[in-house]
Amino acid sequence: MDRPIRAAILCTMGTTSRCLAEKIQTAAGAHGIPLQISAASVAEFEEIAPELDVLLLEPQVRHHQKSFAKTAALYGLPLAVVEPRAFATMNGDRVLQQMLDLLKRDA
Q1: Which of 32, 41, 45, 81 sits in a 20 to 30 Å window from 15, CA-based?
Q2: Which residues lie across from 79 on neighbouring strands?
Q3: What are the start-end ranges of the E strands in the chain?
Q4: pTM above 0.85?
Q5: pLDDT tens for residues 34-93?
Q6: Could you tell me whether strands 35-41 and 5-11 are parallel, antiparallel, or unpaired per DSSP bridges?
Protein backbone atom coordinates (compact mmCIF):
# COMPACT_ATOMS: atom_id res chain seq x y z
CA MET A 1 0.00 0.00 0.00
CA ASP A 2 1.56 3.31 -1.04
CA ARG A 3 -0.65 5.43 1.21
CA PRO A 4 -1.35 5.39 4.93
CA ILE A 5 -3.74 2.82 6.32
CA ARG A 6 -7.10 4.50 6.87
CA ALA A 7 -8.69 3.27 10.08
CA ALA A 8 -11.39 4.25 12.53
CA ILE A 9 -12.49 3.26 15.98
CA LEU A 10 -16.14 3.64 16.91
CA CYS A 11 -17.72 4.07 20.32
CA THR A 12 -21.02 5.51 21.49
CA MET A 13 -20.13 9.19 21.29
CA GLY A 14 -16.54 9.20 19.95
CA THR A 15 -14.93 10.19 23.24
CA THR A 16 -13.12 7.06 24.45
CA SER A 17 -12.34 6.12 20.87
CA ARG A 18 -10.46 9.43 20.55
CA CYS A 19 -8.18 8.49 23.46
CA LEU A 20 -7.52 5.04 22.03
CA ALA A 21 -6.96 6.41 18.53
CA GLU A 22 -4.24 8.70 19.89
CA LYS A 23 -2.51 5.73 21.56
CA ILE A 24 -2.68 3.72 18.33
CA GLN A 25 -1.36 6.64 16.27
CA THR A 26 1.58 6.96 18.68
CA ALA A 27 2.29 3.23 18.44
CA ALA A 28 2.13 3.33 14.64
CA GLY A 29 4.58 6.24 14.56
CA ALA A 30 6.99 4.39 16.86
CA HIS A 31 6.93 1.41 14.48
CA GLY A 32 7.13 3.50 11.32
CA ILE A 33 3.69 2.40 10.14
CA PRO A 34 1.84 5.02 8.07
CA LEU A 35 -1.60 5.32 9.61
CA GLN A 36 -4.48 7.78 9.55
CA ILE A 37 -6.82 6.86 12.36
CA SER A 38 -9.97 8.63 13.38
CA ALA A 39 -12.40 8.31 16.23
CA ALA A 40 -16.12 8.44 15.61
CA SER A 41 -19.47 7.54 17.03
CA VAL A 42 -21.47 4.56 15.81
CA ALA A 43 -23.93 7.04 14.29
CA GLU A 44 -21.22 8.03 11.79
CA PHE A 45 -20.58 4.50 10.53
CA GLU A 46 -22.46 4.73 7.23
CA GLU A 47 -20.81 8.05 6.39
CA ILE A 48 -17.19 7.02 7.03
CA ALA A 49 -17.22 3.33 5.99
CA PRO A 50 -16.46 3.93 2.27
CA GLU A 51 -13.26 5.82 3.14
CA LEU A 52 -11.69 3.20 5.42
CA ASP A 53 -9.35 0.23 5.14
CA VAL A 54 -10.19 -1.20 8.58
CA LEU A 55 -12.75 -0.50 11.30
CA LEU A 56 -12.74 -1.39 14.97
CA LEU A 57 -15.60 -1.19 17.44
CA GLU A 58 -14.97 -0.62 21.11
CA PRO A 59 -16.27 -3.39 23.36
CA GLN A 60 -19.19 -1.34 24.70
CA VAL A 61 -20.68 -1.09 21.18
CA ARG A 62 -19.98 -4.68 20.09
CA HIS A 63 -23.73 -5.22 19.70
CA HIS A 64 -23.49 -3.16 16.47
CA GLN A 65 -21.05 -5.58 14.85
CA LYS A 66 -23.69 -7.80 13.29
CA SER A 67 -25.72 -4.90 11.88
CA PHE A 68 -22.59 -3.19 10.50
CA ALA A 69 -21.18 -6.37 8.94
CA LYS A 70 -23.28 -6.22 5.76
CA THR A 71 -22.27 -2.64 4.94
CA ALA A 72 -18.64 -3.37 5.84
CA ALA A 73 -18.68 -6.35 3.47
CA LEU A 74 -19.96 -4.14 0.63
CA TYR A 75 -16.78 -2.07 0.93
CA GLY A 76 -14.44 -4.99 1.67
CA LEU A 77 -13.93 -3.40 5.07
CA PRO A 78 -12.50 -5.63 7.80
CA LEU A 79 -14.50 -5.10 10.99
CA ALA A 80 -13.79 -6.37 14.49
CA VAL A 81 -14.28 -5.54 18.15
CA VAL A 82 -11.23 -4.26 20.04
CA GLU A 83 -9.94 -6.92 22.41
CA PRO A 84 -11.43 -6.01 25.82
CA ARG A 85 -8.14 -6.19 27.74
CA ALA A 86 -6.35 -4.00 25.18
CA PHE A 87 -9.21 -1.52 25.39
CA ALA A 88 -9.31 -1.50 29.20
CA THR A 89 -5.58 -0.76 29.36
CA MET A 90 -5.63 1.61 26.34
CA ASN A 91 -2.82 -0.48 24.86
CA GLY A 92 -2.17 1.22 21.53
CA ASP A 93 0.48 -1.30 20.51
CA ARG A 94 -1.84 -4.26 21.03
CA VAL A 95 -4.77 -2.67 19.21
CA LEU A 96 -2.46 -1.65 16.36
CA GLN A 97 -1.34 -5.28 16.08
CA GLN A 98 -4.96 -6.44 16.13
CA MET A 99 -5.69 -4.01 13.31
CA LEU A 100 -2.70 -5.17 11.25
CA ASP A 101 -3.63 -8.82 11.78
CA LEU A 102 -7.16 -8.06 10.62
CA LEU A 103 -5.86 -6.40 7.46
CA LYS A 104 -3.56 -9.37 6.71
CA ARG A 105 -6.37 -11.86 7.30
CA ASP A 106 -8.67 -10.06 4.88
CA ALA A 107 -6.02 -9.33 2.24
Answers
A1: 32
A2: 55
A3: 5-11, 35-41, 54-57, 79-81
A4: yes
A5: 999 999 999 999 999 999 999 999 999 999 999 999 999 999 999 999 999 999 999 999
A6: parallel
